[in-house]
Amino acid sequence: MLKRPILKYYYICSTMTDKEKILFIMNPVSGTLEKTGVAKIVESTIDKEFYDFEIQQTRYSGHAYEMARNARECEYFAVVAVGGDGTVNEVAKALTHSNTALGIIPCGSGNGLARHLMLPMDVRRSVETINAHTVHTLDYGVINDTPFFCTCGMGFDAFISMKFAEAGRRGPITYLENILREGLRYKPETYEIIYDGHTHVHRAFLISCANASQYGNNAYIAPQASMSDGLLDVTIMQPFDMIEALQLGIDLFNKTIDKNPRIQTFKTRHIHIKRDKPGFIHYDGDPIMTSADVDIRIEPRGINIIVNPLAHKERRQPSAMQTAYSVFVNDILATLAGKHKLKTQAGKMFSRNKKDQTDK
Description:
16 strands
């Protein structure tokens, strides 16, 4: 079996320019967007008076990290990830606790971090945002020593991330197919959760720890999340039935998941979770098998990111109509659930009384 030779790249850091150096790292296989025209758009749109730019393509897993690390050592102003959340994660973890900023041109299938930051989904407008060179120092998270920048978690979302990786095809349709096929068959797990000096035991469908507000494709698992508050937003989804599943899906895309009665949320800097056995977790949508114990923490103000100066944060919040709809429907479901519980209890009491009378 032939092995790919280990190639080492040696970079000479050029200082013969008054312009800010910026590197675009393009993943040619991420997402569903055709990449052939992206480089031309970058070349025609980038501010050449301000930036001295380069465009490189990844050739193998880990290559984006290597190139970003070298750019950091050469004191580049920014490294721009041109791809999906996986490419963004690989570039970003090379830039933590440095002066080199992360830029994003979203070309993936979900684009969770870019959507949270309200970056344009259009390539040309994304480059124009980079031209504005507005940089904020923001938080990132760490799960079992692996950095994440958007969300991480375990349970069903990690299971679906694994299925999505195995599918070979990208895009929201593949993701939705896996959710619909596996959702009602998935067995919730029991978790021991330790945070802020307290220990709780939950039987949960999933546990998500979010630095940013959404998974991607505007599915808001933590609509109150902020990348500048120094806190993780933890979402625990309890087991649910088919009717409740429909409303959970609506709440997820309506930015009202935190108002659903099957959801418990809280904020913390650090959380430790114990499972019955090893299993999958995910970080920014990438699945990995890990031990039964999972440790998650926030790293406040640990990475510089180029942001959209025209973004309006209030757009992350649900509208008054979305909130009213969610409260109305969830109140109905809670009432129905209460009646069903009473009916079940009455049925058990009737059966027990009937059995006692038969025994007499």
